[in-house]
């Protein structure tokens, strides 16, 4: 476990921070893309906040076990508020809204709305983190979001308006949380920030969980497929992906990290068509080209800027 933790959380001497961050981000958004399809299945058997609580319980236990293999890092008293805000606003409010949005609409539509995160993350990062809006970022965001729109437009499934509104709320709160994480992980280790924030979210979810279980009949919690799905959501889509996302934010700008978001609907639609029967059309390929092209343009533009600075 110690070797695995070191591999995830420390930069490889043979790779640049950006190169390693890009790998982390690709793994992260792919896991989050699969989350839409898995959560859509689980939501048919288990209430929303019960899923959220179990997801954070699994992730929290896994991350605490990893933390035990490392020297403890103390959070300064004046920074507690940031950990609480990340846990409450990001991991509790935003992720709960994401699950509700998926339940009230469909996996593809929810992932499309979530692909708008780059726009709001970049906008929040300008006043809070003093990051610059570059031409390459604008081109990359435009191409990637256009690709996401084309992909979901080809799916042809509608969604309830309330599901769309809830999903937009999720995007806004997650974007705000991302900017906070970028600031905090400049000072503290990403694993520590992620673990403590998830524990905050776990505590916030508990009261809602109790009410939900008391008022919801026929919870199919002990079905093998449901249990395995929740374990996947907790270990891969939460523990692993959140640590990698927060680590990436500590390595490169929030705006650059956000450009990988539109990969999510491409993964979600692919898996949705494979496992959930959500129909796809030829426009999927067109959208995928725009999304991948937008991300690659950003990566190559960043490398070119670094090369020109080194001359």
Automatic annotation (TrEMBL):
Q: Where, by residue number, does the polypeptide cross the bilayer?
A: 21-43, 49-68, 80-101, 107-126, 138-155, 161-181, 193-214, 226-245, 257-276, 282-302
InterPro entries, per database record: AA-Vitamin_Transporters, EamA_dom, EmrE-like
Query: Which keywords does the record carry?
Result: Cell membrane, Membrane, Transmembrane, Transmembrane helix
| Classification via Pfam families | EamA
**Compartment list:** Cell membrane
Q: Where is the EamA domain?
A: 21-152, 161-299
Q: How does it sit in the membrane?
A: Multi-pass membrane protein
User: Which interval of the chain is the signal sequence?
Assistant: none
Per the record, the similarity remark reads: Belongs to the EamA transporter family.
Protein name as it appears in the record: Permease of the drug/metabolite transporter (DMT) superfamily
Record the organism. Desulfosporosinus metallidurans
